Amino acid sequence: MQRLETQQILSALQALPEWSYEDGALNRSYHFPSFTHAMAFLAGAATVIEKMNHHPDWSNVYNRVEVRLSTHDAGGVTQLDLDLAAHMESLAQRLL
């Protein structure tokens, strides 16, 4: 995977308005209605993540999930990160 240029990333993020590009990675904070919703998101996303073989840096505290995406081998954001962000966003919208 080839690292994307900043302008390519910012352009792609127009379709993912809750995501930001900071410090060389895509970032998103989710605040779900409950702990159960947050866990459902994590479990559902895990299936996609494993199929893509692209594992995010993420953390969970109660109903919040923080996500940071970058492709370590490429040294920044790639199309793989944008694809995973779109999958995660789709799943999250069903739970928010």
Describe the structure.
By secondary structure, this protein is an alpha+beta fold. The chain has a single domain, classed as Transcriptional coactivator/pterin dehydratase (Gyrase A, domain 2). The chain is 44% helix and 22% strand. The protein contains 3 helices and 4 strands, in the order H-E-E-H-E-E-H. A hairpin with a 2-residue loop joins strand 3 and strand 4 (64-69). Helix 2 (35-52) packs antiparallel against helix 3 (79-95). The protein starts with 5 loop residues before the first helix and ends with a helix.
Distance between the termini: 31 Å
Mean model confidence by pLDDT? 97
- Quick one: biggest sheet? 4 strands, antiparallel
> Which stretches of 5+ consecutive residues score pLDDT under 50?
none
Write down the Rg: 13 Å
Write down the overall geometry.
globular
Query: Count of DSSP E strands?
Result: 4
Order of helices and strands: HEEHEEH
CATH architecture: 2-Layer Sandwich
Residues in helices, as a percent range: 40-55%
CATH-defined superfamily: Transcriptional coactivator/pterin dehydratase
